[in-house]
């Protein structure tokens, strides 16, 4: 006999079904592998006979004619919430004094009918429905963490032992709810009872009585074969999963006579008829159509369009993290600057924000603070320049990183700026920062013990400020120190009516612009990188010229070269 391949994956599986759960059918097959009635040896009748008859290994029949080998194997098809009584329940409910609840009396009547009709068809396999008073101790004692010395909390114990039922919503009389929505002074008992999530859920257990022959009906021999849970959304949880192509599951009993059982669980639900599927599709189509109409009524029928020649920019951003800074407990102050008068934002729009204070954690050689702080803003650009070479200046995102110590003293850790992406989509930007610094040890001691440091009066001085009207901006003499970096994640959306609209074609003055603003922005992303490189060269050249002018005249040659 080939060695059986057991299925060791006893975890739960989750299914979603649109069919009514009452159509669910499961076939459970249970079989004993090792028999408790081992070889029943009988000696040979004649002396000198070397062979033993195989019939001598067969267990003897009982007085009623029933043989124990009939309990070796059993197969049952079970429906959802179908009640199959165990031997323990049959013995219990036959005694009328043991019946206390209406459900107990109902079970007693059903058992008496079964006895009159020839007895129950099942012997070892039975079920506990959602109405039965049964709690699986394994689910009750399951751990929530991997700690060996875990002590279950009050919430864990309540969630494990809660019997979640379907609850009917209370109606309204005269537009007034029967129960109070807000309890202003909750008692301790009220808090304890309402701290548990009560999701509508129905549970069913498929059990097996694995007791030896003649000892059926004892609680200690009951074992859970399968647990079924169904919620109001059609989600079915099966533990363990259906056997299908996998091997059977195994159960080893404990005690003096250790036995090995195997069982399989198969889904044998009947397929829906074509007429039923067609009727169901019509119902769902009608339901989805009504839901779509409801959503359309919430959104409205008018889609807001931009004016001709205008571009609307939506940015959903996130301050992801900051790393590489000297001190702990960081927070970021950021704002968006609209560069020219052609850019505008709604009056209610807030173009600045401050993150929460976040402690850092070690990641490699750096200390990283994860903020995950979301922000959003909207801005509009109205193109008024008639020249084809004119490109719009893009908004700039400025950030200031600060640290906060135990005494609520803050220090500037760095300034940074980045131009918002000119192309729509998702972008992850890392902004390098710097901070102004003073020479000498006294300044660093003051920064460490007292807090505070040199600050910029205008954060836009990180780049060229929008208020600057001159030709040259000199930063000569400003001592800075490179610090860490801030990571932003931006999701940019752009909306433009485009030039093919009738509004652009009606005016002769606008016929020169045959491309929309979005078409022009395709080349802006490439030109911006070139402009940034040229701007860096111009700054370096300007600094060299300013440094040359500050030197004494006797060290500067006639052609402008310095004399060593």
Automatic annotation (TrEMBL):
It holds the Pfam family B9-C2. The gene is MKS1. It is found in: Cytoplasm, Cytoskeleton, Cilium basal body. It comes from Equus asinus. It comes from the Eukaryota. GO terms for biological process: branching morphogenesis of an epithelial tube; cardiac septum morphogenesis; common bile duct development; determination of left/right symmetry; dorsal/ventral neural tube patterning; embryonic brain development; embryonic digit morphogenesis; embryonic skeletal system development. Its main location: cytoplasm. This is MKS transition zone complex subunit 1. The lineage of its organism: Eukaryota, Metazoa, Chordata, Craniata, Vertebrata. PROSITE patterns: C2_B9. One of its GO terms (cellular component) is cytoplasm. Keywords: Cell projection, Cilium biogenesis/degradation, Cytoplasm, Cytoskeleton. InterPro entries: C2_B9-type_dom.
